[in-house]
Amino acid sequence: MANIVGFVFALLAILLVPGPTNTLLATSGATVGWVRSLPLLLCELIGYETAIVVIRLLMGPVLSRLPNGVRWMHVLAAAYLVVLAVGLWRWRLAQATRAVRAHQVLITTLLNPKAWLIALVLIPLPVADARYWLVLTPLIPLIGSTWIAFGRLLRRSGSQGLTALIPKAASVTLGAFATILIVSALR
Predict the structure, then answer these.
(1) What are phi and psi of 137, to 5 degrees?
(2) Neighbour-count burial of 170, counting CB atoms closer than 10 A to its CB (0-12 exposed, 13-18 middle, 19+ buried)
(3) pTM of the full predicted structure?
(4) What's the chain's Rg over C-alpha atoms?
(5) Alpha carbon distance 183, 177 (integer Å)
C-alpha cells in the first residue's frame, strides 16, 4: 500500500505542474469555458493511457536498443510543440470560438514527456498491478479539470489585459517545453 501512496503523491506532483497538455486545457477553459472544454478531458485521458501502454510495452524496449531513439522522439515532440506554440501566439482570444481542438490535446498528450516519466519511472517495471491504473484513471481528468477551471477563472477575472495574455503565455510555455526537449535530445 505504501507504494500506491507514494505513486499518488508523485503522480499529483507531475500532473499538477504546468505542461503542454495543461496549457492547452487552461487555454480552452479561458476561451470557450468549462462545459465546452470538458470533452478535452477524455482526449487527455486516452492520450496519457495510450502513451503509457505503448511506451511500456513497445517503445521502451525498442527505443533503448536504437541508437538515439529517445533523442529522435524528443525532437519530434518538440517540433509538434513549436507548431502549437506558433498557432497560440497568433490567436486573438476575443475572436476565438474554439481555442483548442480535441486532436491537439490528444496528440500533445501522446507526446507529453510526463507520459514517459509515468510509464518508465512511476509505474514499477516489468508489470504494474491494476491498482496503479485505478489511481491513474480518475486522477488524470480530475487534474485536467483544474487546469480548465484555472483558465476559466482567469477569463472571468475581468482583466482584458490578463485574459489577452493567456494564449501568449500558453505559447511561451509550449515553446519552453519544446526547448527543454531539444536540449535533452542534444545531451
Answers:
(1) -60, -45
(2) buried
(3) 0.72
(4) 17
(5) 10
For residue 32 the three cell numbers come to 470557450
**CB of 157 closer than 8 Å to CB of 163:** yes
Q: What is the DSSP letter of 38?
A: T
Q: Where are the alpha helices (DSSP H) in the chain?
A: 2-16, 20-32, 34-37, 39-54, 60-65, 69-89, 102-111, 113-117, 130-156, 160-186
Is residue 48 within 8 A of residue 140, CB to CB? The reply is: yes
Angle 39-54/102-111 helices, nearest 10 degrees?
Answer: 30
| Residue type for position 102 | A
Please tell me whether residue 31 adopts helix, strand or coil conformation. Answer: helix
> How many residues are there in the chain?
187
Distance, in Å, from the CA atom of 17 to the CA atom of 23, rounded to the nearest integer, reads 10
What is the torsional sign of CA 27, 32, 34, 37?
negative
Contact present, 24 and 144 (Cβ < 8 Å): no
Q: Tell me how far CA of residue 183 lies from CA of 29, 75, 84, 133, 177, in angstroms.
A: 30, 9, 19, 31, 10
What distance lies between CA 162 and its chain's CA centroid?
23
- Over the chain (187 residues), what is each successive 10-residue block's mean pLDDT? 77 82 89 92 97 84 74 77 79 59 93 82 68 92 95 77 69 80 79
